[in-house]
Design goal:
This is Flagellar hook-basal body complex protein FlhO. Belongs to the flagella basal body rod proteins family. By secondary structure, this protein is of the alpha+beta class. It is 22% helix and 31% strand. The protein has two domains: 115 residues, no CATH class; 142 residues, no CATH class. The protein is elongated. It starts with a helix and ends in a 5-residue tail after the last helix.
Amino acid sequence: MFRGFYTVATGMIAQQRRTELLTNNISNANTPGFKEDQSSIRSFPDMLLSSINAKRIPTEKGLIHNMAQPIGTVNTGIYMQDVLANYEQGQLRESDFSTDFALVDGNLPRNAEGVQGAILFRLQHESGQGEAYTRNGNFTVDGQGYLTNPQGLYVLSDTGQRIRVNSDDFRLADDGMIYNANNQQIARLGVSYAANPAALTKQDNGLFRAEANLPSAYNANGVTFAVQQNFLEGSNVDGARSMTELMTAYRAFEANQKILQAYDRSMEKAVNEIGKV
């Protein structure tokens, strides 16, 4: 009976976490460059039930040997194993601002595990140590003329330096080169390549971190891409599918809840009625 409580409780916890994940995806359906989270739910290893019986061995000393008679297996519940970001490209939307950039995926090789690589904009981390990465190209020019993201983090060039454009009157070429109004080259927009994006840590505000700075995507073997000015990449959240999955998770949680209530009524009856006999 108590094992049933634990099994149902794991199901409720897993579906609650899945509901929170899907709710976060839906709330960011209109966030530029947002990458939806995907989860996988697995069951705990099954337990083998056995009946232990004592068997007397016909010897002079009359030894007793415990014999295990297999009965079957029992499931011990489920858990959310992984939460990984989906790096599939979102739809591009045209913008009226020259500081809006979008990455256009080209050929992104797969690693030995079959995971496709990902390209991201380079940013200076708020701590000043290392880099942060994003697909949200909704940049702006700060008071000192530097390109920054909505949280004020500096956009980095291909050499890891801050990019100073002084005003929004500049041009971004498809190959990442930035030119001023006089057609003079300012810098090359920093774009990094993650061969294994599953190893990236997702943070708030659409940022990603890596254990070490990622290499440049311009020099990555077999990687092709383009950068477009006056465009923003939208979220890759499928609103209709996410709502369907959210309702499924809610119904699963509700079903587990009713089973838990049934267990609770059974235990109440066992204590209040059977216990009086």
